[in-house]
Amino acid sequence: MESHTILLVQPGSRPETRTYSDYESVNDCMEGVCKIYEEHLKRKNPNTPTITYDISQLFDFVDQLADLSCLVYQKSTNTYAPYNKDWIKKKIYILLRQAAGQSD
User: Fold this and answer.
1) Calpha distance 48→65 (Å, rounded)
2) What pLDDT, on the 0 to 100 scale, is given for residue 49?
């Protein structure tokens, strides 16, 4: 089931570093988190043609963000429910496991 999801990101300690983006589903949002990390790696390694990383590096990146949370639309109550970093990491783990399973 697709649920509209809003991703809230605050990379640094200053509130003005906050941004948000919205996605059609939780999975799209988790892919968005991976893309944020990939963009971060590209900025740090501009001369590296291909970016590779493992899930523990991604999770370290998530942990060092000042804030990362999701608001997921709940159709039954017509409200958005908040989820924290741990929930996001679990969802990313499931998503990447499924993606790895498809490529075998």
Assistant:
1) 23
2) 87
Find the CATH number of the domain harbouring 89.
Answer: 3.30.2260.10
Contact 28, 5 (CB under 8 A): yes
Q: What is the DSSP string of 40-98?
A: HHHHH-TT-SS----HHHHHHHHHHSSEEEEEEEETTTTEEEEE-HHHHHHHHHHHHHH
Cα angle value 20/32/59 (rounded, 5°): 100
Q: What is the pLDDT of residues 30-73, one digit of tens each?
A: 999 999 999 999 999 999 888 899 999 999 999 999 999 999 99
- The structure tokens listed for 84 are 């924290």
pTM attached to this predicted model = 0.89
